């Protein structure tokens, strides 16, 4: 049999089993200009940035694309009203520019405007204060396609949000931000990097650094699926591992220029019909803000902000975290939520900069880039919204270590996969609905997940109509999407599909258990699983859900962590 190779051009973004094998060979054979560690949004963004500047790039991820913080955020592309209040104008301006670029040019299929109400609770002074802030917010990012602020009386605000108690506000201001499915967006950035020639591989963990005298010249990697190891040569290595930054810096034997501390943020997901409202809410809490965000047929409510020093891969939400969210949101709701309303819960870790000096700790909401040793650059901090800018900064720093001139970043002109042609296909929505025999709402949903790649997802359903049926017990998704997750999106395990390619694990009260068998069976047909593998996949997913539920009944982090980490890892060769 011919050795698998990575095709040139668009087909390279098809992350199937052949691609995976070919990528392994390339990792061992090529001399890369840049090796990027970690396929969260920052690493995926850096790989795309570098590939589109003409560099040869490898992107390696220990687990799944976006399996760290980048699938566990509030999912907002926003300037951050809170940062405006903290006078972080540079950060807010940059983030607002990125929001505009994403919603209009780079990822209009994935990043969508969302209206928010800012409820006013004080008469007289608060409205002009908020109006001045929002006037800045509406303009400081330059031209904006989102509607500007609109002032509402109490009665008008309650018409927009009837689920809010009338004694919880004296009026409101409506403003706009944007949102995306973070895991899907990060995956799309990684696939776009592959489209431009980056060698992209999940389940590939960096276990060490290769040195030549004082310089890092490569990494050793281990395949988390089968335990194979090899060395990857690099002109420069970029550490984009978020809350794992210190771990990687320590592995390099060097003392990093900054440290990263993890802060846990928890969200709960409740059905859309439990709260009547046509906009999101931003609510002040004692220390921060609480968002109530419309999310498809659901609301996301978050978040908490507490130090976390336990397992980084599986941060556990506690009953305390959930009670905090319920207690705060219930202060403004006509029909208070209870624990039984919760469909899903997720916890993520903010990678916050914790410098050893005043200078770096002052940067805690910004990002930092540092040369750890020659040939190794670390980047961390920042926020999801500004990933493209972070990626460009990291690659700028990396090319200082390369012996040739490299073009400036051009990712502000490179639409993500599915973005090109998206508007045209939106206009063809009714024709697409007829062609595939699906309801226009369904086509709209699929378009907003895959953009102009929609035909790659749905065409197999013209040959095998069962693929155009919905997933049993998870009718927001089609079976064709499950197939596509394996054939094009690099899903290797049941949990990859249930938690990140789809969001079934947080969108349905059964958390994916009710459809685990059907989905595993379709995945197994494509990936060649025998019945023992199939049982292991389903068993470990169910154990993961049980452990998460159990951890959410404990009140303190230590107890929750103990229960959560007892669940088995489906990637067998993760430890060194
Ligand atoms: C609760 C919460 C809400 C948030 N909400 C927002 C928001 O609404 N808007 C916003 O702009 N920002 C938000 N953020 C911030 C944003 O999510 C993060 O800044 C961003 O996702 C960090 O991305 P990253 O790529 O740096 O890290 P990660 O996504 O964690 O990626 C790091 C990757 O490195 C991999 N890795 C680790 N070790 C290795 C190794 N040895 N070999 C290979 N790979 C390795 C990990 O598996 C992981 O996938 C939020 C954060 C949290 C926690």
What secondary-structure arrangement, pairings included, does this model have?
Blueprint: H1 17-29, E1 31-37, H2 41-51, E2 57-60, E3 76-77, H3 81-85, H4 89-106, E4 112-120, H5 126-139, E5 150-153, H6 154-160, E6 171-179, H7 182-195, E7 199-201, E8 204-212, E9 215-223, E10 229-239, H8 245-251, E11 259-271, E12 280-284, E13 289-295, E14 298-302, E15 306-307, H9 319-330, E16 344-354, H10 358-361, E17 367-373, E18 376-381, H11 387-399, H12 422-427, H13 429-436, H14 440-450, H15 454-458, H16 460-463, E19 470-471, E20 474-478, H17 479-487, H18 494-501, H19 504-507, H20 516-527, H21 531-551, H22 557-565
Parallel strand pairs: 1-2, 1-10, 2-7, 4-12, 10-18
Antiparallel strand pairs: 3-6, 4-6, 5-6, 8-9, 9-10, 11-14, 11-15, 11-16, 12-13, 13-14, 17-18, 19-20
Helix pairs in contact: 2-7, 2-11, 13-14, 17-20, 20-21, 21-22
The protein binds flavin-adenine dinucleotide.
Flavin-adenine dinucleotide binds near residues 37, 75 and 205.
Task: Report on this structure.
This protein has 576 residues and is α+β, with helices and mostly antiparallel strands. It is built from 22 helices and 20 strands. The strands form three sheets. Strands 3, 4, 5, 6, 11, 12, 13, 14, 15 and 16 form a ten-stranded mixed beta sheet that branches. α2 packs parallel to α7 (182-195) and α17 (479-487) packs parallel to α20 (516-527). The longest helix has 21 residues, at 531-551. It is globular and about 70 Å long. Bound molecules: flavin-adenine dinucleotide.
